[in-house]
Specification:
The chain has two domains: about 200 residues, Aminopeptidase, CATH 3.40.630.30; about 150 residues, Aminopeptidase, CATH 3.40.630.30. Strand 3 and strand 4 form a beta hairpin. Helix 2 packs antiparallel against helix 9 and helix 8 runs antiparallel to helix 9. The chain is α+β, with helices and mostly antiparallel strands. The protein starts with a strand and ends in a 10-residue tail after the last helix. The longest helix is centred in the last third of the chain and has 27 residues. The strands form two sheets. Strands 2-5-6-8-15-9-14-13-12-11-10 form an eleven-stranded mixed beta sheet, with helices on both faces. It has a four-stranded antiparallel beta sheet with strand order 1-3-4-7.
Length: about 375
């Protein structure tokens, strides 16, 4: 078994990489990672230096992991700023580090590409040892696996790579016939609140258009990027992690995975025009709420465009789940349920390793309590949900 690292996704054939993907989860595919790299979103200059891991037996590629050497913690959504600050205060360097993650994408899914035949404890052990050696050779503070599926996280934990947990909110489709059927499962007050929010959006003159696949044009991507950039500029003062070229390339290479919902505003002065849009990715079971932008803020427009329209789409297309991304307690009242997420962390410096392991253990109790409390506040008539 040979393990090596490459510094560009283009050094491996797309078909060879995708053949290892264990599902149709979109973010792990060669096309998605290539779009990030080709358009300059993941480079050493942006703090995302590509360093993917490949495992071969002879001439045959048997496993791969997307990986990056990071010089900051932006765009990861597993927050380790306090760890970095502790390193700094004691005169150590927390950066650079190596992460196995999908850039800017806090969505749980495969982080190890491997066929079932080769997905063994021996493979995990060899990968773990190789990553540890990489950190020692290149003076990286450690390596981290972010938002892996549960099986991989448990396997890493069995290799003594501590598991950290977090909490997100996902919506689950329990064979709803339509949005009204979904609302019917809620308490009267919560049901009325959502109906009121949706009605107020309509009364403001909004209509919605869903575009998918090849129906998305170059002009659509130009408009979406303008919305996305405008929202980032207002909220954070920069243009966002992603470029217009990224969205254009994604539209060309992964059209079957894309859903754009556009909010059109009509009034007495202006003709109908798009003032906001949300962009989702999807696979055969799940819709992933990823990107949003608007030119102007309107009451409840964000909830409608990013959540209620996504639920409508999931029901209409018989998808099982809606992954709305990181954080967001406001999702609870809208029927999104707490879900435990995982990450695994190996720290090279022994003193910090012990301290971080203690932190993770203490934090886990509070995360579990938070999830239980959130579940108790779900809006459904009965709380014996999955």
């Amino acid at each position: 078994m040979q393990i090596r690292f490459i510094d560009s996704i283009r050094q491996i054939d797309a078909a060879q990489w995708n053949r290892l993907c264990p599902s149709d989860y979109p973010f792990i595919r060669h096309e998605f990672l290539a779009a990030l790299e080709d358009t300059g979103c993941t480079t050493a200059a942006t703090g995302w230096q590509v360093r993917h891991l490949l495992v071969s037996e002879g001439e045959q590629l048997i496993a791969a992991m997307p990986g990056y050497i990071k010089t900051h913690s932006y765009g990861e959504y597993v927050f380790d700023w306090s760890w970095a600050d502790a390193y700094r205060r004691y005169g150590f360097n927390y950066y650079p580090k190596w992460i196995n993650a999908i850039p800017f994408t806090p969505c749980t899914g495969p982080r190890l590409l491997c066929t079932a035949e080769y997905h063994t404890p021996t493979l995990i052990e060899n990968i773990s040892n190789s990553l540890t050696a990489l950190c020692e050779e290149q003076r990286l503070s450690g390596w981290h696996c972010l938002f892996p599926d549960g099986d991989l996280s448990v396997q890493l934990r069995e290799q003594k790579i501590p598991q950290r947990i977090g909490c997100q909110f996902h919506w689950f489709n329990r064979d709803y016939k339509n949005f009204a059927d979904f609302l019917a499962q809620m308490s009267s007050r919560k049901r009325k609140n959502i109906a009121k929010e949706r009605r107020q959006v309509q009364e403001q003159g909004f209509s919605f258009e869903t575009k998918t696949g090849t129906n998305l044009s170059t002009a659509d991507w130009e408009l979406f990027y303008a919305l996305y950039r405008n929202t980032y500029l207002k909220r954070s003062g920069h243009k966002g992690y992603l470029s217009e070229a990224f969205f254009q390339q994604l539209g060309a290479s992964m059209s079957e995975n894309l859903v754009m919902i556009c909010a059109r505003k009509t009034d007495d002065i202006h003709a109908s025009e798009v003032v906001a849009a949300s962009l989702f990715l999807r696979d055969s079971t799940t819709i992933y709420g990823r990107y949003w932008g608007c030119f102007e803020e309107y009451q409840f427009l964000h909830f409608e465009t990013c959540y209620y329209q996504g639920i409508d789409y999931a029901i209409a297309n018989q998808l099982q789940r809606f992954d709305g991304g990181a954080q967001g307690e406001h999702k609870i009242a809208r029927g999104f349920e707490p879900v435990i997420t995982c990450s695994n962390h190996w720290i090279q410096e022994p003193g910090f390793r012990a301290a971080i392991e203690n932190f993770i253990e203490t934090e886990a109790a509070s995360i579990q309590a938070y999830a239980e409390d959130a579940r108790a506040h779900l809006p459904f008539k009965q709380t014996d949900t999955e």
